[in-house]
From TrEMBL:
It comes from Micromonospora carbonacea. Gene3D superfamilies: Protein of unknown function DUF881. The chain crosses the membrane at residues 90-110. The keyword Transmembrane applies. Residues 1-53 are annotated as: Disordered. One of its GO terms (cellular component) is plasma membrane. Signal peptide: none annotated. Belongs to the UPF0749 family. The lineage of its organism: Bacteria, Bacillati, Actinomycetota, Actinomycetes, Micromonosporales. InterPro entries: DUF881. This is DUF881 domain-containing protein. Residues 133-170 form a coiled coil. It holds the Pfam family DUF881. The keyword Repeat does not apply. Keywords: Coiled coil, Membrane, Transmembrane, Transmembrane helix.
Amino acid sequence: MSEEQTETGTGWPQPAGPGRPGGPAGEPDGRPGAPDSGEVSPLAAAAESSSVPDVAGAGAVTVELSSVAPSGVGSSEASSSGPAAVARRFTSAGAMIALLLGLLGFTLVVQLRTTSTDPTAAATRQEDLVRIFSDLDSREKRLRQDIEALEESQRQLRSGEQGRQAALEEATRRADELGILAGTLPARGPGLSVRFEAGAKPISAYRVLDAVQELRGAGAEAMQISGGDGAAVRIIASTYFLDGAGGELVVDGRRLSGPFTITVIGDPTTMATALKIPGGVAASVAGDGGNVIVEDREVAEVSALHAPVKLEHARPVS
């Protein structure tokens, strides 16, 4: 071998002339006349121009376009039907809102007319309200006094030596109160005399019962009703009133002729206020052409008695 050849390891000589440099991959070839790395080989360009088009790829594109077309049509149909549905919903909502507004306006008009034409509200003046409040204050004071009396009785009953005597006195007092309420004992005290005089229409049992209820609500403790002939009937919880012939009144089975007078024991001011309130007993009788005369009594006597009722079924609970 000559000096210009080197051993290749296979026994064949290899020229020692200039070869491709063994630098890193991707670096440009430093030999003179070497092609640039960015140039395209003429053979590669010819191969690309002579290659056959991919028929399968074109078919795939055609299939994709055909698959897109129906979806576009469906979306246009949905978009065309959307405004009509929204319009229908808005039309129903508008009709419902208009109906509710109409009902609200009608209710307000009726309320205003009722308030403006209510005779009771128009007749209730400031002084009438003051009387009603005064009546309520009187009831509250009376109830507080009752509470204080009961508390005092409780303290006396709990005391040692005076317990027995206090218990006896308390039992006697309660028996007297129950006797007055039941109508088996006469009573006296401050109160009123309420006289009913008929006008064009006779005094009805309903008017008398209304007066009795008003007096009870105002704190009446004992009552009796008498007729023009002086006959009297004690009024208790079970007393009933009926209209009789010729303007008479039937009270617990007894006939009374007019004019009728109720004698009641209680706070005169409170009871008189209850009878004279607007739209009350006095106003109702006056509307029928009659008259109600209310007079204070420093000492009103309720002497008519009610026969005690024998109980057949009720028994006290011990």
